[in-house]
Amino acid sequence: MIDLSTNYLGLRLKNPIVVSASPLSEKLENFPRMRDAGASAIVMYSLFEEQIEAESENIDSALEYGANSYAESTSYLPDMPKYHIGPDRYLDLLQKAKKSVDIPIIASLNGNSRGGWTQYAQYMEEAGADALELNIFNIPTDPSITGQQLEDSYVELVRSIRKCIKIPISVKIGPYFTSLANFARRLSDAGADGLVIFNRFYQPDFDLEELEVTPNLVLSSPHELRLRLHWAAILYHQVEIYLAITGGVHDATDVLKSMMAGANVAMMTSALLKYGIEHIGVVLSGMEAWMEEHEYTSIKQMRGSMSLVNVEDPTAFLRGNYLKMLGSYSFGETGTALPTY
Ligand SMILES: Cc1cc2nc3c(=O)[nH]c(=O)nc-3n(C[C@H](O)[C@H](O)[C@H](O)COP(=O)(O)O)c2cc1C
């Protein structure tokens, strides 16, 4: 009997596949479907700082000036209503989702600053969230802000939220930090229980005809997993924090690699949007088949086996790998690259 169970944020999960924040959690009827397909936990889509602030501004201005000022003050968030729903409906959906399934539901808050919106962490806890994922997506464009200041502000944010809630907190970050391992440790010291690596950096495209910068969401591809594997392998055992990998997890081998790198869970969105929620079942069966064939009996047995602290040749994760990689490139007679094995 293969034991796929894992522990994430102190939650005992039946397997390591978690559905990450996505539009799949916008509909209540999807929650039982994700559970039935085999998801061990579900992260809800994010409630945004801007949405909460816009709603409270709207309420203030509606009280002051009447309902006409309403539309105007939401206009700086043009696309928000299309994808996300407002704070009250979020909490309502969270409550209903909790009742509809018996697996953990992780709420998600997206913001950068400390402010009134952090109160929503408490509301989410009261609504029954099993944990809170704090999704930090900030693009620092001001040259006067140092990396240290930015990291301090995130750490303070985590610290202030830690003070108001008891449920576990995970922090979803991007990969662009100068000393990522140190930053991860600081987040852990500030009270974060888990780290979700990594937010994808959605780069807008340029429309040459219209001379416009256009948002263009492209689903992930499996090669994006490598960056995540690399960092999970480095952070495993070096920082006391639960690790979730998000980005490029598409099939069974991606989940197995994530476990061997040291992650506690592997999260999925793009593959589920592409192949459907039922794809989770395919991935789970693929994992069991592989584990059986290779005589693994549990996830616990493989976790971290390919991490920096456990791998035979740690240079594979370090500078030495850079030299090796560049040296491994060779040209064929026609000038095309030949793989070297
Ligand atoms: C359409 C769409 C909506 C998403 N919405 C959110 C969100 O609200 N909050 C969040 O933290 N991540 C959001 N994500 C990011 C995913 O949770 C995930 O981290 C990312 O897509 C990488 O994982 P994947 O390769 O499995 O897609 C969204 C992704 C997609 C494609």
DSSP helix fraction: 40-55%
Number of helices: 14
Low-confidence stretches: 62-83
Query: Based on helices, strands and strand pairing, what is the structural class?
Result: alpha/beta
Tell me about the biggest sheet?
8 strands, parallel, barrel
Plain-language structure description:
By secondary structure, the chain is of the alpha/beta class. The chain has 14 helices and 14 strands. It has helices at about 30-35, 50-65, 70-75, 80-85, 85-100, 120-125, 145-165, 180-190, 225-235, 250-260, 270-275, 280-295, 300, 320-325; strands spanning about 5-10, 10-15, 15-20, 40-50, 105-110, 130-135, 170-175, 195, 205, 210-215, 240-245, 265-270, 330, 335-340. An 8-stranded parallel β-barrel has the order 3-4-5-6-7-8-11-12, surrounded by 7 helices. A two-stranded antiparallel sheet has the order 1-2. Strands 9-10 form a two-stranded antiparallel sheet. A hairpin with a 2-residue loop joins strand 1 and strand 2. The radius of gyration is 21 Å and the shape is globular. The structure holds flavin mononucleotide (FMN). Flavin mononucleotide (FMN) binds near residues 22, 45, 46, 246 and 269.
Observed structural traits:
single chain, 341 residues, alpha/beta, eight-stranded parallel barrel, two-stranded antiparallel ribbon, 41% helix, 16% strand, binds flavin mononucleotide
Short description:
The chain is of the alpha/beta class. Helix content is 41%, strand content 16%. Helix 9 (225-235) runs parallel beside helix 10.
Which secondary structure elements does this structure contain, and how are they paired or packed?
Blueprint: E1 6-8, E2 11-13, E3 17-19, H1 30-37, E4 41-48, H2 49-65, H3 69-74, H4 80-83, H5 87-100, E5 105-110, H6 119-126, E6 131-135, H7 147-164, E7 169-173, H8 180-189, E8 194-197, E9 205-207, E10 212-214, H9 225-235, E11 242-246, H10 252-261, E12 265-268, H11 270-275, H12 279-293, H13 299-302, H14 319-327, E13 330-331, E14 337-338
Parallel strand pairs: 3-4, 3-12, 4-5, 5-6, 6-7, 7-8, 8-11, 11-12
Antiparallel strand pairs: 1-2, 9-10, 13-14
